[in-house]
Amino acid sequence: MVFFWTDTLIFLVLGSLLLAFLRFGRKEQWLRPWRKLTSDKPAMISLVILVVFLLIGLLDSIRFYPAHATASAGSVIVQGEPISLFDVWATTIRTHDEKTYSAPFASHLYTRELLPDGVGSGFWGYARLVHGGAHLEEPDSRVHDILQTVVQGTAKGLLVAGLLVLSAAIFRSRKKSTSMSKEICQLSGDDFEKPWRSVLVTGTLILCMGWTLVDLSVHYHVLGTDKVGQDVLYQSLKSIRTGLVIGCLTTLVTLPFALVLGIVSGYYRGWVDDLIQYIYTTLNSIPGVLLIAASILVVQVYMSNHAEAFDTIAVRADTRLLFLCLVLGMTSWTGLCRLLRAETLKLREMEYVQAARALGVGDPGILARHILPNLFHIVLISVTLDFSGLVLAEAVLSYINIGVDPTTFSWGNMINSARLEMAREPVVWWPLFAAFLFMFILVLSANLFADGVRDALDPRYQRGER
To answer: Which among 263, 379, 330 has a CA at the least distance from the CA of 17?
Structure first.
């Protein structure tokens, strides 16, 4: 088992969120907005989709080196690049490579080549794929085979969803001492308080689609292959982790600067406020793209001069990804810092803060007990809203070759590679479509969930002010 820096930090962020949930989850001031959030139908549907993306990203963050033991020394020799649990689960689409481009669900290559005719000469034609549709004797029958696989995958997904609902109904009936039929009716209903039916339908659709994709991927390239014959669906799924890393780790870098400097600036004012405002005003005056490009160039030069410290391609790519998160965090904390400064300026004049100061409570106690808890709603709203922007920022930076390493799976690298593919004749459109589809689903779900968090936590929305 091996954990890179980004893997360790991802689990650190998730562990911190879990501890915070266990610590504050039972307090009424946090339960009230959580109940409001769980009654928001678009937010809960988006949460289900985000959980699926998160699970894929976590599976791709647990890695190990494939190894074998030697009979003579009895030692373990590590070979090649590390693989993840997701790679093990997706072994079929990871190893079923073709020669070059092939369209989605195709049985032949996308471009013509010289094929032997068995009599010593050749002709120009489309060669059969090694894996795509190779189980069919007649390629013309693949439509019927695809439809049959879709029906079987949908049936399996419905069966698993039914078993999950039945298990949940049994658990709730035993916990509440009610009948199981009543619990099934409540889970399949969609009342004002809890949109269980919407969540259930979304989960069932994801199970059906996921199982269908798994069955189809055994014999077909669902989203085609790229120039080197690698499955595009595999690349799109592997890119999920990169998007989650950019969103989560950049937030981890942003929060300490924004929280500390914003609160200190607004509470103490005077020369401290002037100094902090000068710092983030100066930082904002530097074009972000130029700063990121210069930083990435420095990292590349350092890795070239210290090649012995980066023994594998994966280590080099992970180091560049981590440094990109650091640079994005260093350039994106100023907006949240301004918000927290402005809110702290208001809170320090509130009656309960002045009363605490009159009773002799020190500044650390006031900041920890009265200022910081009343700023959490701004922090959570800002973090959820900025997540989708960071995912899109990675795509833009990779498109102009100053983002993640070219060997890293990311939607930005897929879009960057699609520039030349869109100029081909005939057009190779499916890599760009796949990157756009997965990025669209993740960003849309993050935005809808962020809207729900804002409605649940923002006091103005709770009072009905718009």
So the answer is: 379
Q: What is the pTM of this model?
A: 0.84
Between helices 313-332 and 334-347, what is the axis angle to 10°?
A: 40
Which H, E and C letters describe 252-264, residue by residue?
HHHHHHHHHHHHH
d(CA 235, CA 431): 9
Q: For residues 240 and 301, what is the distance between their CA atoms, to the nearest angstrom? A: 28
3 state DSSP class of 404: coil
Rounded to whole angstroms, the Cα distance separating 241 from 246 reads 9
146 pLDDT more than 80: yes
**pLDDT at residue 361, as a whole number:** 81
Q: Is the dihedral of CA 81, 86, 91, 97 positive or negative?
A: negative
Element (H, E) at 84: strand 83-84
CA gap 101, 430 in Å, rounded: 10
First to last CA, the chain: 51
299 three-state secondary structure: helix
Q: Which stretches does DSSP call E strand in 287-441?
A: none
* The residue to which tokens 């562990």 are assigned: 15
DSSP H helices, 115-231, are 142-176, 180-188, 196-219
Q: In terms of C-beta density within 10 A (0-12 exposed, 13-18 middle, 19 or more buried), how is residue 198 classed?
A: middle
Inter-CA distances, 63 with 8, 53, 58, Å: 11, 18, 10
- Tell me, what amino acid is at 413? N
Burial zone of 132 (CB within 10 Å; 0-12 exposed, 13-18 middle, 19+ buried): buried
Name the residue among 408, 85, 420 with its Cα closest to residue 226. 420
Band of pLDDT at residue 424, cut at 50, 70 and 90: confident
Quick check: 196 pLDDT over 60?
yes
